[in-house]
Amino acid sequence: FDKMIDLGVYESSEIRILRNRAAEATKNIILTLHKQFKKTDKAICLLASILKFVSTSNLEATIKQDISVLEELKQSAGLVTPIIDLMAEKNYTKALQLIQKDEKIYQDNIDLQKFYKRRKAICIIRIAKQTRIQAQNYFNDNKMDVARQYFEKTGNFIYDHLDAFVLNKSRIDELINHIKKTMPKINMKKFNQFRDNLIEETKISDEKSNDQHALTFLLDSYLMTGLIDNIKKNARTEFIRNITSVAIFFIVVLFLIAYYQSQRGI
After folding, report:
1. Tens-place pLDDT, residues 174-196
2. Which long-range contacts link 29-33 to residues 24+ away (Cβ below 8 Å)?
């Protein structure tokens, strides 16, 4: 380009057209390579270098806009990387806290908001799953009071974060009320059938979606707390029945002893 300037042809119409074509072709190549390799800093530098030989204000404005977009992506990368790293370490609680903080700060960034929404749903599901596993372990160890607390914790956690999922809150409230009314009256032998039917009826088209996982964990938490309440109620009933039987036995024994002693006194 220096030689063209020395020769006085740099601003000629033919050269201006060639400069613009070269700039646009180079710009497209840079953006294509950026999509593949994600080298944002290099892409920004290369686009900035094109501005030196662009010949029209329209193309110059377009390239500056591309640079601006890449600058935003660069900033976004600095925001999303800590979240991705925390999730890779399975530290979902801290990742969720960071998402909740940043999504308020960057409300106007559409791309970041989409990222936050996806990652938030995943974090909530993973946290709920961890708590659900703890609850099941306590249940299997017959530690019913602690198991109930963890099942309840799972359900409350999902319910408090329903905004992260595409679920109908009114419908969920109906299902929860249905479970609460039905569980105290259900025959223990029919619990699995009741649970399976309920889960089947509420299946979402994409069974592996975060929405389906959230709904299943939520309903299951109420089902299991209801089951534990029934187990404890039956245990109390059985205990009272046994105590009553023992009491009656002793009463009969005492009566027979008293009768025998009275007969000997005759």
Report:
1. 999 999 999 988 887 888 898 88
2. 31/66
